[in-house]
Amino acid sequence: MENVKDYYPVKGRVILHVDMNAFYCSVHAAERPDLYAGKPTAVAGSSEKRKGVIVTCSYEARKLGISTGMVVNQGLRKCPDLIVISPDFHLYRKYSKAFMKIAYEYTPELEATSIDECYLDITGSKQFGTPIQIAEEIQRRINEELGIPCSIGIAPNKLLAKMGSDMKKPNGITVLRLRDVEKILWSKPCGELFGIGHKTAEKLRKLNIMTIGQLAKADEQMLKDYFGVLGTWMKQAANGISHSPVLADREPNKSIGHTTTLPEDISNESDINRVLLNISDQVGRRLRRQGMMAGGIQITIRTPDMKTITRSHALQVPTDYDKDIYKEAVNLFYRQFGAGKPIRLLGITLQNLIPKSESVVQLDLFDYQEQPKKESLIKVMDTLRDKFGENAVVTAGMLGDDPSTLIRNYKSRGTSLQKDNLSLPE
């Protein structure tokens, strides 16, 4: 067994990155192994039209040339036996909560970064064993209790843990220490460094910086002149240096938020509005479930070069209504960022939360008679979703633009990951 000091330096940290493998497909295989286990499968937004984009695919499908972002028709040409599955985000959230509950048993320092991955700071978890023992136990339990595979990276910081979890899939565990960076990472192309996208890698190539090692040795001032503060970050990252902490959600009632990383950059105004509408629906529902009202709204925008922008606005009147959240989020976005620029990630966070029982709702002079009807409608919609799942009720704005597709598509409701099923509201 390796020396525990290799993992627990005197003043250092030990971080795990737990990443579910082909999560959506794995969930379907766990639910219906008779239909999907061991077969080439793909989850896509508009499988009926065969024009939807593949969101994820099983490893069996990947061996046959299927990849994320491929149009369904193209995938079927490559693999006629490909099984295309409509998404079930209620089911995915159920499995997401379950695997994070397992991970949380080993440390309260858990940061969920998406529905299928999280960081764990296990520096104070020595009672459960060495980092490898902890990672093996988490991986084993997720596999045995939920029936889905995961890969885990073990490192002294989040950056290297994330890089490590990507190295052995599916069901791999990788240790990546600072002393391993030169040997393992420096020969790889810059585009394989987490946080560097295709366009940034192309700009680096024009500077004759092809590998992570060349980036690690590049002149920092030159990088700053060309990329701004991103240049400093890139040089540090190439050397395996990252000081980003694991941000555990200790006080969930202070804010409620959701972000989504898009499968491809978007810049079209209608696409942006569709994503914001869907996120507004998700955070609004969580807000009402907790019996809270929001006094402020913050949006998060991430551009392809990994620049993150946040803007917030205090509301004159607290709200728990999706339409109000959406309206404020859209106003914030276009006032602060504008349309036409590519976006990689969008998020909405509801802030300054107060219990609904303690808030005073200001009724509009012209629609105060409609307020009870609106409250009643929202309550009925939430009750239906509680009983029958998130897909039981959706608004027209979350489906296709053609009204004739509403009934046909409502069962395969998308989230902001699926552009085909998102639409601008009235």
TrEMBL record:
It is found in: Cytoplasm. Poorly processive, error-prone DNA polymerase involved in untargeted mutagenesis. Copies undamaged DNA at stalled replication forks, which arise in vivo from mismatched or misaligned primer ends. These misaligned primers can be extended by PolIV. Exhibits no 3'-5' exonuclease (proofreading) activity. May be involved in translesional synthesis, in conjunction with the beta clamp from PolIII. It comes from Paenibacillus gallinarum. Its cofactor is Mg(2+). Keywords: Cytoplasm, DNA damage, DNA repair, DNA replication, DNA-binding, DNA-directed DNA polymerase, Magnesium, Metal-binding, Mutator protein, Nucleotidyltransferase, Transferase. It catalyses: DNA(n) + a 2'-deoxyribonucleoside 5'-triphosphate = DNA(n+1) + diphosphate. The keyword Transcription regulation does not apply. Binds 2 magnesium ions per subunit. The record marks Y24 as: Substrate discrimination. Its EC number is 2.7.7.7. One of its GO terms (molecular function) is DNA-directed DNA polymerase activity. Mg(2+) binds at D19, D116. Residues 15-197 form the UmuC domain. It is an enzyme of class 2 (transferase). Belongs to the DNA polymerase type-Y family. The keyword Transit peptide does not apply. The active site is at E117. PROSITE patterns: UMUC (PS50173). This is DNA polymerase IV. Its main location: cytoplasm. Monomer.
